[in-house]
Amino acid sequence: MKGATTVVLALGLSGLVASIALHATQQSPNASSAAADAVVSGGAAAAADAAMAADDTADAQDSDSLGTLQERIARGFEIAPVPLNLDGKDHDLVGLGSYLVNAVGGCNDCHTNPPYAEGRDPFLAQPPKVNASRYLAGGMAFGPFVSRNLTPRANGRPANLTFEQFRIVMRRGYDLKGRPPFVPSRNQDRLQVMPWPVYSHMRRTDLRAIYEYLRAIPSLPSAPPS
Questions:
Q1: One digit per residue, pLDDT tens: the chain, 226 residues?
Q2: 14-27 in b/e burial notation, b at 16+ Cβ within 10 A?
Q3: Residue of 110, 114, 93, 112 whose CA lies nearest to 210
Q4: Where are the domains of the chain?
Q5: How far apart are CA 195 and CA 15, in angstroms?
Q6: What is the separation of C-alpha 81 from the centre of its chain, rounded to a whole number of angstroms?
Q7: Whole-number Å distance between alpha carbons of 210 and 36
Q8: N or C: which end of the chain has fewer CB within 10 A?
Q9: Each residue of 64-96: b (16+ CB within 10 Å) or e?
Q10: Going by C-beta distance under 8 Å and a sequence separation of 6 or more, which residues neighbour residue 20?
Q11: Alpha helix (H) ranges present in 61-202?
Q12: Integer Cα distance of 120 and 101 in angstroms
């Protein structure tokens, strides 16, 4: 820093002005475009900072501890992207289940096709909005594997599974539907792509909450794979 200051002082005011003028005349034709891009980039950064500040303000309303169960339940109801049928359901489990499905598990990304409404994809820097019309109805293709419909059937069972069957799927990854392809074999068939090895560590109460939430969402026909 001392050396740079000495150089500037040696140039003198007139020399410094001349140097700046010379630099300006030697700018490339794309300089104005680059400057405009910098302004846009700066605007995006400012918007991101504002969004983060809003998130920080919301987070500040949480408890100073790791967050109470009631806070998670309340947040779950806030972020549920579809109307919920609470008749005959455990209110708290539904709220907690929504929190786990929509804020932690990322279920929408694989089980909704497409995951976001048109023009509302956050990965394209658009304001996010979940595709409620196909919410968790499956149909996302990952090579030969297609995500399943998690919505409740006419009998009220999500994916037509009892809770014990659902727990087995989440803990062991068994494909109880018996649909090909069979990996690693027909007798040892395990669900692929789905991160059940991670979900297997969830407490039984958490799994019960997810199941209860899935019981409360609208029933939809299975989406065609794409």
A1: 444 444 333 334 344 333 433 333 344 444 444 444 444 456 666 666 676 676 666 556 555 556 799 999 999 999 999 999 999 999 999 999 999 999 999 999 999 999 999 999 999 999 999 999 999 999 999 999 999 999 999 999 999 999 999 999 999 999 999 999 999 999 999 999 999 999 999 999 999 999 999 999 999 999 888 7
A2: eeeeeeeeeeeeee
A3: 93
A4: 36-67, 68-226
A5: 65
A6: 12
A7: 47
A8: N
A9: eeeeeeeebbebbeeebbbebeeeebbeebbbb
A10: none
A11: 69-79, 91-99, 107-111, 163-172, 196-199
A12: 19
Token pair, residue 140, equals 């996302």
Beta-carbon contacts of residue 136 (< 8 Å; ≥ 6 apart): 107, 108, 111, 112, 149, 150, 151, 214, 217, 220
